[in-house]
Write a structure and sequence with these properties.
This protein has 317 residues and is mainly α. It has ten helices and seven strands. It folds into two domains: 2-128, Multidrug-efflux Transporter Regulator, Chain: A, Domain 2; 137-231. The longest helix is centred in the C-terminal third of the chain and has 65 residues, at 237-301.
Length: 317
């Protein structure tokens, strides 16, 4: 993974130290009234760079240019929050679209000068902060082999890394979603090949991306569309921030409900198909046996013809 420096140089990501990311969530979904969502999580500069897919050097460079605010000082350490993570992700998105750091700085500066900084940060965090509390984890090759019950072929690493399920960090491998990795390992232990699992995940990712693109477009059109192509006025920022925080869990509920409905329908259909196949074979096997048994029963119960001696006519000799 790489990122740009203020001078346009590409820097590789530094290896991730094996440290648990300290994260203290202040409630779920919409934050408590008056609470700053941007402060609900705390990161060191190393952890912040890791989550934003950039480098420590870039974080500090952006801070020097005023693109992100300085961290909170606690003794000799700097503490960053979700506000910083959201800003870094927005900067990364704009850089990937070809904008320069200078133009991004002008955009952020112009908006901050005309708006209350707190409302801007709150809206920015509501839109761009992480949608999951799950934290990345790193594994050695042996740990991956053990996790998959000895069925992890090192050749699969290339495919897993290709699709972003794992990423190489020195001698270890980083999983953005340890839960997804655990689920894949359980399926492999059940006898399903990992390449087949990855294929399904990629298909699911593509379908979900298309569907959620429509959801985000709805919000953008009907919530932010009233403000044209620009940013909303400062007076609207708090209302929009609260609205986005209310909508976020609703989107997850809709997706979860539809996934459950689809799984129930499809699983029931497949089970019905399998049971129907079994029943058909059962009937095919039982019918000939029943017919054969019936024929034998009919044969045994048929009346036997008795031979009688011819009777002489009366008076004959």
């Amino acid at each position: 993974m790489s990122s740009r420096t203020p001078h346009g140089t590409i820097l590789p990501m530094s290896p991730n130290p094996q440290k648990a990311i300290k994260k203290t969530r202040v409630g779920a979904g919409k934050p408590a009234k008056g609470a700053q969502t941007a402060e609900s999580s705390e990161y060191t500069v190393e952890q912040l760079a890791q989550l934003a897919n950039t480098t420590i050097r870039n974080v500090r460079a952006y801070q020097d240019r005023g693109l992100i605010p300085p961290p909170e000082r606690r003794g000799r350490s700097g503490v960053y929050g979700e506000m910083h993570l959201s800003r870094l992700r927005i900067i990364g998105t704009l850089l990937s679209r070809g904008y320069t750091l200078a133009s991004i700085g002008e955009l952020i500066g112009a908006w901050e000068q005309g708006h209350d900084l707190g409302s801007f940060m709150g809206l920015e965090s509501a839109v761009s902060s992480p949608w999951s509390d799950e934290q990345p984890a790193t594994y050695s090759l042996q740990e991956l082999i053990d996790l998959f019950g000895g069925r992890f072929d090192p050749i699969w690493l290339a495919k897993a890394c290709e699709f972003g399920l794992l990423s190489s960090e020195g001698a270890r491998f980083r999983a953005r979603s340890p839960g997804l990795l655990q689920a894949g390992a359980e399926l492999v232990r059940a006898g399903i090949p990992l390449p087949a699992i990855i294929e399904v995940i990629m298909s699911l990712r593509g379908n979900l991306t298309q569907t959620l693109e429509l959801v985000v477009h709805l919000v953008d059109r009907h919530v932010f569309g009233a403000f044209g192509d620009g940013l909303p006025p400062a007076a609207e920022a708090p209302r929009l921030r609260d609205l986005i925080w209310r909508l976020r869990p609703m989107v997850e509920v809709v997706v979860k409900a539809e996934v459950a409905r689809a799984l129930e329908t499809i699983a029931t259909r497949h089970l019905g198909d399998r049971l129907g196949h079994v029943l058909d074979r059962f009937v095919e096997k039982r019918v000939p046996q029943a017919l054969d048994g019936r024929a034998q029963t009919v044969a045994k119960s048929a009346p036997t013809a008795k031979l009688k001696a011819p009777t002489r006519a009366r008076g004959s000799r």
